[in-house]
Amino acid sequence: MSGIVVIGGGQAGASLVAKLRKDGYDGAITLIGAEPVPPYQRPPLSKAYLLGEMEVERLFLRPESFYADQDITLRLGQSVTAIDTAARTVSLGDEVLSYDQLALTTGSVPRRLPAAIGGELGGVYGVRSLADVDAMAHEVREGARALIVGGGYIGLEAAAVAAKRGMQVTLVEMAERILQRVAAPETSAYFRDLHRGHGVDLREGVGLTRLLGDGHVTGAELTDGSRIDVDLVVVGVGILPDTALAEAAGLAIDNGIRTDEQGRTSDSHVWAAGDCASFPYKGERLRLESVPNAIDQAEIVARNMMGAGVDYLATPWFWSDQYDVKLQIAGLNRGYDQVVARRGEGNSVSFWYYHAGQLIAVDAMNDPRAYMVGKRLIDGGKTADPAVVGDATADLKPLLRA
Q: Does any domain span residue 319?
């Protein structure tokens, strides 16, 4: 019994095996996950789950019984130690499993603080896994002093949860502004004001020199020379594609596991999808860190493992929840040369990104209509007159008929 083996029990892996069965694959399927729980949603970990508003079972993408009902073998709490592409086997320690086809949905790993600056002290956490959040839960309490390292979406979401729990929150971002890598100054300014309005001590252009403490963190020394008292540190300084297994197996790596348009790696019997995979996109290579990409790409790979031969055509979109604000992002803003603001009621606003007159992305804060219109325009390869977009009294819907 060989069949299909999937390494990685996250969103992409769960979507891939479910799609295989849905589309009629009747061979053996084995899903291997390093964590001891069934595949689960990651976005609520640092929000509803950490706030105590969601039970752990509600995190699960599907009940564990689903996999048994679909004759999918779950190997949980187990790590693959090696892949032999010539023999078509994977090793779990001393055990060896053979495969006809292999899918890598290994996801990503968080960047950690070096031990030399206190990264291994107690009270220092990432927010990537269920175990991470469970470990920090008892330290997230009213009045405690939290330091958030990193002003990307992960750090900002963690800061919002800490502030909502009544903690004293300091957030440091080494770059000149929060969200510098992923958003325009206008979006950065919106979220800067939002967090400061909720009492967060947000410091831009300030990094971490080292953490202080004997066993457990008690303070931090910052690059501006200041020191702060700290009870808890949350590290949100980005993630890296988990390519270790693929690289050791000799597969091509290019900002992730390199795949073709259909999700096939440099070995014809091995596929990849999700955070770990880079793929051709509009004349370049792209790797997307998002739930929608994990689902869509994994389902295309499942179809292609069954011989469909279809290309993956990514339509990037993302979201982030902070306090009472839902940010929805359509498209990719890389290379923008113009940003147009559209003001809505209250704290709703959207920022529209253009390159050479072409609409390429939209950031919409509490403005689902702007997001919907922008996404449909971008997906359809259309643009929108900046003068119309910037006029808050103008109806956006006619843009879809242009």
A: no
